[in-house]
Design brief:
The protein is built from 2 helices and 32 strands. By secondary structure, it is mostly beta strands.
Length: 474
Protein backbone atom coordinates (compact mmCIF):
# COMPACT_ATOMS: atom_id res chain seq x y z
CA UNK A 1 0.00 0.00 0.00
CA UNK A 2 1.62 3.28 -1.09
CA UNK A 3 2.01 6.08 1.43
CA UNK A 4 1.13 9.65 0.60
CA UNK A 5 3.76 12.25 -0.20
CA UNK A 6 5.93 13.41 2.72
CA UNK A 7 4.23 16.20 4.68
CA UNK A 8 5.30 19.68 3.63
CA UNK A 9 6.84 21.76 6.43
CA UNK A 10 9.49 24.46 6.48
CA UNK A 11 10.87 22.81 9.63
CA UNK A 12 11.25 19.32 8.15
CA UNK A 13 15.01 19.77 7.71
CA UNK A 14 15.85 21.42 11.05
CA UNK A 15 19.14 20.00 12.29
CA UNK A 16 21.08 20.38 15.52
CA UNK A 17 24.79 20.98 15.86
CA UNK A 18 26.97 21.18 18.98
CA UNK A 19 28.98 24.37 19.37
CA UNK A 20 32.71 24.43 18.64
CA UNK A 21 35.19 23.94 21.49
CA UNK A 22 35.80 27.69 21.75
CA UNK A 23 32.05 28.29 22.25
CA UNK A 24 31.77 26.09 25.35
CA UNK A 25 32.08 27.04 29.04
CA UNK A 26 34.61 24.78 30.80
CA UNK A 27 35.41 23.83 34.38
CA UNK A 28 32.00 24.46 35.96
CA UNK A 29 31.02 22.34 38.97
CA UNK A 30 27.39 21.68 38.03
CA UNK A 31 25.11 20.95 40.99
CA UNK A 32 24.53 17.29 41.85
CA UNK A 33 21.18 17.90 43.57
CA UNK A 34 18.58 15.31 42.53
CA UNK A 35 15.79 17.59 41.34
CA UNK A 36 14.01 17.56 37.99
CA UNK A 37 14.62 21.18 37.01
CA UNK A 38 16.78 22.36 34.12
CA UNK A 39 19.61 23.72 36.42
CA UNK A 40 20.37 26.30 33.73
CA UNK A 41 18.77 29.56 32.57
CA UNK A 42 19.86 31.76 29.67
CA UNK A 43 18.86 35.06 28.07
CA UNK A 44 20.42 37.33 25.41
CA UNK A 45 22.93 38.71 27.95
CA UNK A 46 23.75 36.05 30.54
CA UNK A 47 24.10 32.32 31.19
CA UNK A 48 23.24 31.16 34.74
CA UNK A 49 24.03 27.67 36.08
CA UNK A 50 23.30 26.14 39.49
CA UNK A 51 26.64 24.94 40.93
CA UNK A 52 27.96 22.92 43.84
CA UNK A 53 28.40 25.08 46.94
CA UNK A 54 29.51 24.29 50.45
CA UNK A 55 27.29 25.42 53.30
CA UNK A 56 24.37 26.69 51.25
CA UNK A 57 23.26 27.14 47.68
CA UNK A 58 24.74 29.11 44.81
CA UNK A 59 24.63 29.69 41.09
CA UNK A 60 27.11 31.24 38.71
CA UNK A 61 26.29 33.96 36.15
CA UNK A 62 28.48 34.39 33.07
CA UNK A 63 28.22 37.01 30.32
CA UNK A 64 27.20 35.11 27.20
CA UNK A 65 30.43 36.07 25.40
CA UNK A 66 32.69 34.89 28.26
CA UNK A 67 33.37 31.39 26.88
CA UNK A 68 36.29 29.11 27.64
CA UNK A 69 37.56 28.00 31.05
CA UNK A 70 35.81 29.61 33.99
CA UNK A 71 38.14 30.74 36.78
CA UNK A 72 37.57 28.62 39.90
CA UNK A 73 37.38 31.88 41.89
CA UNK A 74 34.74 33.41 39.62
CA UNK A 75 32.17 35.17 41.82
CA UNK A 76 28.93 33.30 42.51
CA UNK A 77 25.48 34.44 43.53
CA UNK A 78 24.96 32.94 46.97
CA UNK A 79 22.50 34.06 49.60
CA UNK A 80 20.53 30.87 50.19
CA UNK A 81 21.25 28.66 53.19
CA UNK A 82 20.14 25.50 51.32
CA UNK A 83 20.77 24.14 47.80
CA UNK A 84 19.31 26.16 44.90
CA UNK A 85 16.69 24.09 43.04
CA UNK A 86 15.51 26.40 40.25
CA UNK A 87 16.47 29.68 38.57
CA UNK A 88 14.56 31.80 36.04
CA UNK A 89 15.44 35.04 34.22
CA UNK A 90 12.87 37.83 34.19
CA UNK A 91 11.45 38.13 30.63
CA UNK A 92 11.14 41.92 31.01
CA UNK A 93 14.58 42.72 32.44
CA UNK A 94 17.63 40.77 31.24
CA UNK A 95 19.58 41.71 34.39
CA UNK A 96 17.09 40.28 36.90
CA UNK A 97 16.98 36.61 37.92
CA UNK A 98 15.01 34.71 40.57
CA UNK A 99 16.26 31.68 42.51
CA UNK A 100 14.37 29.11 44.59
CA UNK A 101 15.89 26.97 47.30
CA UNK A 102 15.50 24.16 49.78
CA UNK A 103 15.67 26.84 52.49
CA UNK A 104 11.97 27.69 51.66
CA UNK A 105 12.78 31.15 50.24
CA UNK A 106 12.75 32.79 46.82
CA UNK A 107 15.35 35.48 46.15
CA UNK A 108 15.44 38.02 43.31
CA UNK A 109 18.82 39.36 42.17
CA UNK A 110 20.07 42.24 40.01
CA UNK A 111 23.12 41.15 37.99
CA UNK A 112 25.53 44.00 37.09
CA UNK A 113 26.72 44.40 33.49
CA UNK A 114 30.35 44.39 34.66
CA UNK A 115 31.96 41.29 36.22
CA UNK A 116 31.86 41.75 40.02
CA UNK A 117 35.02 41.15 42.06
CA UNK A 118 33.27 39.51 45.02
CA UNK A 119 30.37 37.10 45.39
CA UNK A 120 26.90 38.65 45.10
CA UNK A 121 25.24 37.96 48.45
CA UNK A 122 22.58 40.69 48.75
CA UNK A 123 19.33 39.97 46.85
CA UNK A 124 17.06 42.84 45.86
CA UNK A 125 14.25 41.14 47.71
CA UNK A 126 13.68 37.89 49.63
CA UNK A 127 10.20 36.37 49.29
CA UNK A 128 9.13 34.31 52.31
CA UNK A 129 5.83 32.47 52.40
CA UNK A 130 6.48 28.78 51.71
CA UNK A 131 6.84 26.35 54.60
CA UNK A 132 8.87 23.73 52.67
CA UNK A 133 11.45 23.79 49.91
CA UNK A 134 10.69 25.79 46.76
CA UNK A 135 11.44 23.95 43.51
CA UNK A 136 9.56 25.74 40.70
CA UNK A 137 9.75 29.33 39.47
CA UNK A 138 8.01 31.00 36.53
CA UNK A 139 7.72 34.70 35.64
CA UNK A 140 4.43 36.02 34.27
CA UNK A 141 4.74 36.37 30.47
CA UNK A 142 3.12 39.83 30.15
CA UNK A 143 2.80 41.53 33.58
CA UNK A 144 5.74 43.40 35.09
CA UNK A 145 7.36 41.98 38.26
CA UNK A 146 4.85 39.11 38.70
CA UNK A 147 6.57 35.87 39.75
CA UNK A 148 5.11 32.44 40.53
CA UNK A 149 6.68 29.94 42.91
CA UNK A 150 5.62 26.40 43.85
CA UNK A 151 6.91 24.48 46.84
CA UNK A 152 7.01 21.14 48.61
CA UNK A 153 4.14 22.43 50.77
CA UNK A 154 1.89 21.86 47.67
CA UNK A 155 1.22 25.63 47.51
CA UNK A 156 1.55 28.00 44.54
CA UNK A 157 2.28 31.62 45.48
CA UNK A 158 2.17 34.54 43.04
CA UNK A 159 4.27 37.54 44.10
CA UNK A 160 4.63 41.19 43.20
CA UNK A 161 8.42 41.45 43.18
CA UNK A 162 8.21 45.25 42.88
CA UNK A 163 6.72 45.51 46.38
CA UNK A 164 7.92 42.21 47.85
CA UNK A 165 4.30 41.24 48.56
CA UNK A 166 2.31 38.06 48.07
CA UNK A 167 -0.49 38.70 45.56
CA UNK A 168 -2.20 35.29 45.59
CA UNK A 169 -1.80 31.98 47.38
CA UNK A 170 -3.28 28.83 45.82
CA UNK A 171 -3.06 26.46 48.75
CA UNK A 172 -5.95 24.02 48.53
CA UNK A 173 -5.79 22.75 44.95
CA UNK A 174 -2.96 20.20 45.02
CA UNK A 175 -3.08 17.34 47.55
CA UNK A 176 0.46 16.23 46.70
CA UNK A 177 3.80 17.43 45.29
CA UNK A 178 3.52 19.77 42.27
CA UNK A 179 5.71 18.60 39.37
CA UNK A 180 5.31 21.47 36.89
CA UNK A 181 3.54 24.81 36.38
CA UNK A 182 3.15 26.74 33.11
CA UNK A 183 1.43 30.04 32.18
CA UNK A 184 -0.57 30.34 28.97
CA UNK A 185 0.38 32.98 26.36
CA UNK A 186 -1.25 35.98 28.05
CA UNK A 187 -0.87 34.75 31.64
CA UNK A 188 -4.59 34.38 32.36
CA UNK A 189 -4.41 30.62 33.11
CA UNK A 190 -2.00 28.06 34.59
CA UNK A 191 -1.65 24.38 33.82
CA UNK A 192 -0.13 22.18 36.52
CA UNK A 193 0.87 18.55 36.95
CA UNK A 194 0.92 16.86 40.34
CA UNK A 195 2.00 13.61 41.98
CA UNK A 196 -1.72 12.70 42.28
CA UNK A 197 -1.57 12.08 38.47
CA UNK A 198 -4.00 14.96 37.73
CA UNK A 199 -3.50 17.58 35.03
CA UNK A 200 -5.21 20.84 36.07
CA UNK A 201 -6.07 24.13 34.36
CA UNK A 202 -6.33 26.91 36.96
CA UNK A 203 -7.61 30.49 36.88
CA UNK A 204 -5.28 31.94 39.54
CA UNK A 205 -7.18 35.22 40.10
CA UNK A 206 -10.47 33.41 40.73
CA UNK A 207 -8.68 30.68 42.68
CA UNK A 208 -10.54 28.01 40.69
CA UNK A 209 -9.68 24.80 38.85
CA UNK A 210 -11.49 25.36 35.54
CA UNK A 211 -10.68 21.93 34.02
CA UNK A 212 -8.86 18.78 35.09
CA UNK A 213 -7.95 15.36 33.76
CA UNK A 214 -6.99 12.41 35.98
CA UNK A 215 -4.27 10.08 34.65
CA UNK A 216 -3.44 11.98 31.46
CA UNK A 217 -0.55 9.50 31.55
CA UNK A 218 -1.21 6.36 33.56
CA UNK A 219 2.29 5.79 34.93
CA UNK A 220 3.32 6.86 38.43
CA UNK A 221 6.43 8.82 37.38
CA UNK A 222 6.28 12.64 37.03
CA UNK A 223 4.38 14.40 34.25
CA UNK A 224 5.25 17.73 32.62
CA UNK A 225 2.85 20.07 30.79
CA UNK A 226 3.09 23.26 28.69
CA UNK A 227 0.47 25.41 26.98
CA UNK A 228 0.70 25.66 23.18
CA UNK A 229 0.01 28.73 21.07
CA UNK A 230 -3.44 27.37 20.12
CA UNK A 231 -4.44 26.94 23.77
CA UNK A 232 -3.91 23.16 23.79
CA UNK A 233 -1.78 21.48 26.45
CA UNK A 234 1.24 19.34 25.52
CA UNK A 235 2.22 16.74 28.13
CA UNK A 236 5.00 14.22 28.73
CA UNK A 237 4.70 11.29 31.11
CA UNK A 238 4.83 7.52 31.42
CA UNK A 239 2.52 4.62 30.56
CA UNK A 240 1.53 1.98 33.10
CA UNK A 241 4.37 -0.16 31.70
CA UNK A 242 6.85 2.72 32.35
CA UNK A 243 7.25 3.68 28.71
CA UNK A 244 7.71 7.38 28.06
CA UNK A 245 4.73 8.99 26.37
CA UNK A 246 3.68 12.36 24.97
CA UNK A 247 0.16 13.74 24.67
CA UNK A 248 -1.77 16.71 23.30
CA UNK A 249 -4.99 17.79 25.03
CA UNK A 250 -7.82 20.25 24.47
CA UNK A 251 -8.73 21.76 27.89
CA UNK A 252 -12.30 22.32 26.67
CA UNK A 253 -12.67 18.55 26.18
CA UNK A 254 -10.40 16.53 28.45
CA UNK A 255 -12.22 13.24 27.84
CA UNK A 256 -10.05 12.09 24.92
CA UNK A 257 -6.52 13.20 23.95
CA UNK A 258 -6.04 15.07 20.69
CA UNK A 259 -2.91 12.92 20.25
CA UNK A 260 -1.09 10.29 22.32
CA UNK A 261 2.23 8.68 21.31
CA UNK A 262 4.48 6.16 23.04
CA UNK A 263 8.21 6.92 22.89
CA UNK A 264 10.73 4.60 24.58
CA UNK A 265 11.48 2.90 27.91
CA UNK A 266 14.04 5.29 29.41
CA UNK A 267 13.67 6.44 33.05
CA UNK A 268 14.50 10.15 32.61
CA UNK A 269 11.65 12.67 32.89
CA UNK A 270 11.16 14.42 29.53
CA UNK A 271 11.42 18.21 29.91
CA UNK A 272 9.42 19.95 27.15
CA UNK A 273 10.72 23.26 25.73
CA UNK A 274 8.05 24.85 23.53
CA UNK A 275 8.62 27.58 20.92
CA UNK A 276 5.27 29.28 20.16
CA UNK A 277 6.65 31.09 17.08
CA UNK A 278 7.35 27.85 15.20
CA UNK A 279 5.06 25.60 17.27
CA UNK A 280 7.95 23.17 17.72
CA UNK A 281 8.39 21.33 21.02
CA UNK A 282 11.82 20.00 21.99
CA UNK A 283 12.03 17.07 24.43
CA UNK A 284 15.15 16.79 26.59
CA UNK A 285 15.35 13.91 29.06
CA UNK A 286 17.53 14.19 32.15
CA UNK A 287 20.30 11.63 31.63
CA UNK A 288 19.51 11.32 27.90
CA UNK A 289 22.08 12.15 25.26
CA UNK A 290 19.52 13.28 22.69
CA UNK A 291 16.99 16.04 21.96
CA UNK A 292 13.88 15.02 20.04
CA UNK A 293 11.70 17.62 18.38
CA UNK A 294 8.15 17.63 17.07
CA UNK A 295 5.97 20.12 15.20
CA UNK A 296 2.44 20.67 16.52
CA UNK A 297 -0.14 21.48 13.82
CA UNK A 298 -3.91 21.48 13.27
CA UNK A 299 -3.78 18.40 10.99
CA UNK A 300 -3.73 14.73 12.10
CA UNK A 301 -1.71 13.27 13.71
CA UNK A 302 -1.28 16.79 15.22
CA UNK A 303 2.15 16.02 16.76
CA UNK A 304 4.61 15.37 13.91
CA UNK A 305 8.08 13.94 14.61
CA UNK A 306 10.79 16.04 12.93
CA UNK A 307 14.20 14.73 13.97
CA UNK A 308 16.58 13.82 16.81
CA UNK A 309 19.83 15.49 17.81
CA UNK A 310 22.14 12.88 19.34
CA UNK A 311 25.47 13.19 21.12
CA UNK A 312 27.69 10.87 23.13
CA UNK A 313 27.41 12.41 26.59
CA UNK A 314 24.22 12.56 28.73
CA UNK A 315 22.78 15.92 29.77
CA UNK A 316 22.61 17.02 33.42
CA UNK A 317 20.35 19.94 32.57
CA UNK A 318 19.37 22.26 29.75
CA UNK A 319 18.89 25.99 29.15
CA UNK A 320 16.65 27.34 26.37
CA UNK A 321 17.44 30.70 24.76
CA UNK A 322 14.51 33.11 24.14
CA UNK A 323 13.92 33.80 20.44
CA UNK A 324 15.32 37.34 20.65
CA UNK A 325 18.75 35.93 21.60
CA UNK A 326 19.21 33.91 18.38
CA UNK A 327 21.34 34.68 15.31
CA UNK A 328 18.64 35.20 12.67
CA UNK A 329 21.18 35.82 9.89
CA UNK A 330 22.21 32.13 10.15
CA UNK A 331 18.59 30.83 10.21
CA UNK A 332 19.02 29.72 13.84
CA UNK A 333 15.56 28.83 15.21
CA UNK A 334 16.55 27.49 18.66
CA UNK A 335 19.61 27.27 20.90
CA UNK A 336 20.10 25.07 23.92
CA UNK A 337 22.80 25.16 26.59
CA UNK A 338 23.55 21.57 27.57
CA UNK A 339 25.05 20.89 30.99
CA UNK A 340 27.65 18.16 31.38
CA UNK A 341 29.32 17.28 34.66
CA UNK A 342 32.02 19.95 34.29
CA UNK A 343 31.03 22.08 31.31
CA UNK A 344 28.22 23.70 29.33
CA UNK A 345 28.01 23.59 25.54
CA UNK A 346 25.62 25.33 23.14
CA UNK A 347 23.53 23.22 20.76
CA UNK A 348 22.31 25.21 17.78
CA UNK A 349 19.18 24.29 15.78
CA UNK A 350 19.13 25.72 12.25
CA UNK A 351 17.04 25.49 9.09
CA UNK A 352 19.14 25.01 5.91
CA UNK A 353 19.44 28.63 4.72
CA UNK A 354 17.93 30.04 1.55
CA UNK A 355 18.88 33.66 2.20
CA UNK A 356 19.95 35.87 5.10
CA UNK A 357 16.59 36.51 6.77
CA UNK A 358 13.47 34.41 6.23
CA UNK A 359 10.24 36.11 7.23
CA UNK A 360 8.35 32.83 7.51
CA UNK A 361 10.86 31.51 10.09
CA UNK A 362 10.74 34.60 12.28
CA UNK A 363 7.30 36.03 12.94
CA UNK A 364 7.26 38.93 15.42
CA UNK A 365 8.18 37.55 18.83
CA UNK A 366 7.64 38.67 22.47
CA UNK A 367 9.99 41.52 23.37
CA UNK A 368 11.26 42.77 26.75
CA UNK A 369 8.49 45.32 27.38
CA UNK A 370 5.68 44.16 29.73
CA UNK A 371 2.10 44.70 28.52
CA UNK A 372 0.63 45.17 32.02
CA UNK A 373 1.54 46.30 35.51
CA UNK A 374 1.09 43.84 38.40
CA UNK A 375 -1.93 45.71 39.80
CA UNK A 376 -3.65 45.76 36.39
CA UNK A 377 -3.23 42.00 36.01
CA UNK A 378 -4.46 41.34 39.54
CA UNK A 379 -7.57 43.48 38.91
CA UNK A 380 -8.58 41.18 36.03
CA UNK A 381 -6.95 42.70 32.93
CA UNK A 382 -5.29 40.48 30.31
CA UNK A 383 -2.98 41.47 27.47
CA UNK A 384 -1.00 39.56 24.87
CA UNK A 385 2.80 40.00 24.83
CA UNK A 386 4.17 43.11 23.10
CA UNK A 387 5.87 41.77 19.96
CA UNK A 388 9.07 42.92 18.26
CA UNK A 389 10.55 42.20 14.82
CA UNK A 390 13.82 40.27 14.56
CA UNK A 391 14.53 41.39 10.99
CA UNK A 392 17.54 43.51 11.98
CA UNK A 393 18.53 41.29 14.89
CA UNK A 394 17.92 42.08 18.56
CA UNK A 395 19.88 44.64 20.57
CA UNK A 396 19.31 44.30 24.34
CA UNK A 397 18.11 47.55 25.94
CA UNK A 398 20.26 49.29 28.51
CA UNK A 399 20.21 47.61 31.93
CA UNK A 400 17.36 48.85 34.13
CA UNK A 401 17.53 48.70 37.89
CA UNK A 402 14.71 46.86 39.61
CA UNK A 403 13.47 49.02 42.47
CA UNK A 404 11.52 47.34 45.24
CA UNK A 405 9.10 49.68 47.00
CA UNK A 406 7.99 47.88 50.11
CA UNK A 407 4.78 49.19 51.60
CA UNK A 408 5.51 50.32 55.13
CA UNK A 409 3.29 50.56 58.18
CA UNK A 410 4.44 54.18 58.44
CA UNK A 411 2.42 54.88 55.27
CA UNK A 412 -0.82 54.19 57.14
CA UNK A 413 -2.44 57.51 57.99
CA UNK A 414 -4.42 57.94 61.25
CA UNK A 415 -8.21 58.22 60.83
CA UNK A 416 -9.54 61.71 60.24
CA UNK A 417 -12.74 63.14 61.70
CA UNK A 418 -14.20 65.59 64.24
CA UNK A 419 -13.33 63.34 67.22
CA UNK A 420 -9.54 63.57 66.67
CA UNK A 421 -7.83 64.67 69.86
CA UNK A 422 -4.65 66.68 70.34
CA UNK A 423 -2.72 63.45 71.06
CA UNK A 424 -3.79 62.03 67.71
CA UNK A 425 -2.47 65.18 66.03
CA UNK A 426 0.84 64.78 67.85
CA UNK A 427 0.99 61.13 66.74
CA UNK A 428 0.51 62.19 63.14
CA UNK A 429 3.36 64.70 63.44
CA UNK A 430 5.56 62.02 64.98
CA UNK A 431 4.78 59.69 62.08
CA UNK A 432 5.70 62.43 59.62
CA UNK A 433 9.08 62.77 61.31
CA UNK A 434 9.60 59.01 61.20
CA UNK A 435 8.72 58.97 57.49
CA UNK A 436 11.24 61.75 56.77
CA UNK A 437 13.94 59.98 58.79
CA UNK A 438 13.27 56.74 56.92
CA UNK A 439 13.49 58.47 53.55
CA UNK A 440 16.78 60.13 54.55
CA UNK A 441 18.24 56.76 55.59
CA UNK A 442 17.12 55.12 52.34
CA UNK A 443 18.75 57.93 50.31
CA UNK A 444 22.02 57.46 52.26
CA UNK A 445 21.93 53.68 51.67
CA UNK A 446 21.34 54.23 47.96
CA UNK A 447 24.26 56.69 47.80
CA UNK A 448 26.59 54.26 49.59
CA UNK A 449 25.57 51.40 47.28
CA UNK A 450 26.36 53.54 44.22
CA UNK A 451 29.75 54.43 45.71
CA UNK A 452 30.57 50.76 46.39
CA UNK A 453 29.55 49.84 42.84
CA UNK A 454 31.77 52.58 41.39
CA UNK A 455 34.71 51.36 43.51
CA UNK A 456 34.15 47.74 42.37
CA UNK A 457 34.20 48.88 38.74
CA UNK A 458 37.42 50.82 39.42
CA UNK A 459 39.03 47.79 41.12
CA UNK A 460 38.08 45.61 38.14
CA UNK A 461 39.57 48.12 35.70
CA UNK A 462 42.82 48.33 37.76
CA UNK A 463 43.06 44.52 37.93
CA UNK A 464 42.65 44.33 34.13
CA UNK A 465 45.41 46.96 33.71
CA UNK A 466 47.65 44.97 36.06
CA UNK A 467 47.06 41.78 34.06
CA UNK A 468 47.93 43.60 30.82
CA UNK A 469 51.08 45.02 32.45
CA UNK A 470 52.19 41.59 33.72
CA UNK A 471 51.49 39.99 30.32
CA UNK A 472 53.50 42.78 28.67
CA UNK A 473 56.54 42.24 30.93
CA UNK A 474 56.45 38.49 30.24
Amino acid sequence: MSRRVVRQSKFRHVFGQAGKAEQTYEDIRVSKVTWDSSFCAVNPKFLAIIVEAGGGGAFIVLPLAKTGRVDKNHPTVNGHTGPVLDIDWCPHNDSVIASASEDTTVMVWQIPDYTPVRNITEPIVTLEGHSKRVGILSWHPTARNVLLSAGGDNVIIIWNVGTGEMLLSLDDMHPDVIHSVCWNTNGSLLCTTCKDKTLRVIDPRKGQVVAERFAAHEGMRPMRAVFTRQGHIFTTGFTRMSQRELGLWDPNNFEEPVALQEMDTSNGVLLPFYDPDSSIVYLCGKGDSSIRYFEITDEPPFVHYLNTFSSKEPQRGMGFMPKRGLDVSKCEIARFYKLHERKCEPIIMTVPPKDLFQDDLYPDTPGPEPALEADEWLSGQDADPILISLRDGYVPPKSRELRVTKRNILDVRPPTGPRRSQSASDGSFSQQQQQQTLETLLEEIKSLRERVQAQEERITALENMLCEFVDGTD
